[in-house]
Design brief:
about 150 residues, Arc Repressor Mutant, subunit A, 3-stranded antiparallel β-sheet, 7 helices, about 70% helix, globular, MarR/SlyA-like
Length: about 150
């Protein structure tokens, strides 16, 4: 059962990623960076990495790619020139909206095959599994694993 769940989750993620790439030109990981900036405003790269629960180097590589596409800007911090702040551009906001719409469309295709009662049952089961896998560190920092309704 666990392997089937992991295989399905991977397949759904790949489908969403493909749909976002073909429609908006963004991968899911790049979209998540833009979403964090849209939600929190300008962030230091370390804050962005923490908000995403990723290694700073991974986030730096994503931010560099987004900067090349003019979706974000990076600037030296006024107080500490070693730190970089990252901001979402207008083009980034527009691209993010297109990516989110593409992702929503892909997820509706998958979850639209379930009726209301099945969706409610699945959401309850996913919440229970999320609680079971949440580490104490996740709970302290307020990080949660996104469920289908949050993606």
């Amino acid at each position: 059962m666990g392997l089937a769940f992991l295989t399905l989750a991977y397949g759904v993620r790949e489908d969403v990623d493909r749909h976002m790439l073909s429609t908006a030109g963004l991968s899911l990981s790049r979209t998540k960076v833009l979403q964090a900036l849209a939600a929190h405003g300008t962030l230091h790269q370390a804050q962005l990495a923490d908000a995403l629960g990723q290694a700073p180097r991974s986030v730096t590589q994503i931010v560099e790619g987004l900067e090349r596409l003019a979706l974000v800007t990076r600037a030296d911090d006024a107080d500490d020139r070693r730190r970089k702040t990252v901001s979402l551009t207008d083009k980034g906001r527009t691209t993010l909206a297109a990516a989110e719409e593409a992702g929503t469309h892909a997820l509706r295709k998958v979850f639209g095959s379930l009726d209301r009662q099945q969706l409610a049952s699945l959401q309850a089961l996913l919440a229970r599994l999320d609680t079971a896998v949440a580490s104490p560190a996740d709970a302290r920092r307020g990080h949660r694993h996104p469920t289908a309704s949050q993606e």
